[in-house]
Amino acid sequence: MKNKLIKMSSIAAIVAFGVTGCNQEANTPKTTEAALTAADAIAFVEKVEQEAVALNLEGARAAWIYQNFITDDTSALAAAASKKSTDAYVRFAVEAAKFNQVDVPADVRRKLDKFKQGLVMPAPQDEAKSVELAQIKSQMGAMYGKGSYTTKAGETLSLPQMSAKMATSRDYDELLELWAGWREVSPQMKPLYERQTELGNEGAQNLGFSDVGAMWRSGYDMDPDAFAAELDRIWGQVKPLYDDLHCYVRDELSEQYGADKMPEDGTIPAHLLGNMWAQQWGNIYDLVAPENADPGYDVTKQLAAHNYDEIKMVEQAETFFTSLGFEPLPQTFWDRSLFVKPQDRDVMCHASAWNLDSKDDIRIKMCIQKTGEEFSTIHHELGHNFYQRAYKHQPVTFQGSANDGFHEAIGDTIALSVTPKYLKQIGLIDEIPDESKDIGLLMKMALDKVAFIPFGLLVDQWRWKVFNGEITPEQYNDAWWELRKKYQGVSAPIARGADAFDPGAKYHVPANTPYTRYFLAHIQQFEFHKALCEIAGDKDAIHRCSIYGNKAAGERLNQVLEMGSSQPWQDAYVVLTGKPEMDATAIIDYFEPLHVWLKEKNQGKQCGF
């Protein structure tokens, strides 16, 4: 999963959740503003939206300049713009809560709820506590950002360097040292995280929510508890496929490292899966690849053979969208985007899609490598851009995805159409490999997409229980590993001490970035892909389908994109899939050939955890 920064120049850029939820009347703060009326609410919303456009443009420009010209000065300017926006949105949320008891039109209520839900870690309405919360956030961010580990051999490594080694090393002891070494960065965060939870819960209660977790879950047009139950239902649909993948991978790792390295409880030691957090397993594909898995072509080599440079790669991705009926990208996209890493300055190369002015100033920022993986990534990034442009006619508050998983899901939906069929249509390959070659391609994708799903679920499962008090500070680490075992079948490779705070070793925890969006995106992308393939009338297996060139699929996709977050996400689902609820059976259908193969390979093995 790519942690992309999608710069949406709208309230959605600050408001982390895309849709409204239940008002939680029982927890609504009583207001002394008895005289407030619907007219007051409408006037307030209009004023906020006007201010938001200017704030977002200023903030987006400052962030763009900083990420493309990294200096102390541009960093300071970006930080100042970010603080200005954050302060404003705190004010918007507090003011919006005053209208909790006022009867207002549905669209106005939706906007008011968005203002409240936009604060990921809301500060209490007390200046000293607000300052304390900001300081805690800064402290934890610094601890994580400056984190490093000095190996037994005396080499000091940053997290990217450690991650690169974990991706390629097959030395059990080296992997264990790196895994444990990185987790030395987080114990000092634990008391800070405990205090932050207290302050954030107080802030959430000021806005009418029982705790921060309930506030996060309120952004999904459902009762917060019902939403949590829905996630577990969806996971139950995927679990049989995951369990068979887990069993096969565990057996292959047992052959690689020795059966004595595998715990008796059926779990996989967390450091052996090629990733610092065992969240994606694609880096160990070489250890588990099926025999004869080579599809018979290499996209990277084909790009070179057909003289694709960085710009031509982007132009081809644009052609994918115009083939569906979308208008070409504006000239400003080509003039202002970053496609190639400059030789004369530092830039942030992490691929990202940007919308600066809530209208047509859309861009991507990438240091493109001429590889097959980057070719798919470009299609993904442009998916964000075409989504951003499609909803530009919505009020700024509704310029965002239908729920916070949609943006990533739409980008990945497009990338799922970068199939051999598509590569043949655009002349990159001459022949589509026969179906016997599909197992390797599906395995490679499953190690990233299917393996990620339980991790995408459990991060917020842990936080929600922390926020509501079900998990106490003394239980932070034990509860974390209980969830890792329950959902992933992954275990800590060594005993974890009482002072450990392993959740803090994952960026999104100290950064307070909600994680359910990534779980949703991994479910939704397969649903969307299947639905669009059916609309396109493609009779191939879902994993072989591409909607390239199909105007009917493009028209239906555009209908959903144009909605932004103006309607409940269930309404967007009906437009695209014909149903108002999520359904993970599309993933099962997509990976069916691999699942059949896994079941055959697992016969006679001891599976389960």
UniProtKB/TrEMBL annotation:
Chloride binds at residues 220, 517. Disulfide bonds join 349-367, 533-545. One of its GO terms (molecular function) is metallopeptidase activity. One of its GO terms (cellular component) is membrane. Pfam families: Peptidase_M2. GO terms for biological process: proteolysis. Keywords: Disulfide bond, Glycoprotein, Metal-binding, Signal, Zinc. Zn(2+) 2 binds at residues 380, 384, 408. The active site is at 381 (proton acceptor 2), 381 (proton acceptor 1), 508 (proton donor 1), 508 (proton donor 2). CDD domains: M2_ACE (cd06461). Zn(2+) 1 binds at residues 380, 384, 408. This is Peptidyl-dipeptidase A. It comes from Thalassotalea agarivorans (Thalassomonas agarivorans). The lineage of its organism: Bacteria, Pseudomonadati, Pseudomonadota, Gammaproteobacteria, Alteromonadales.
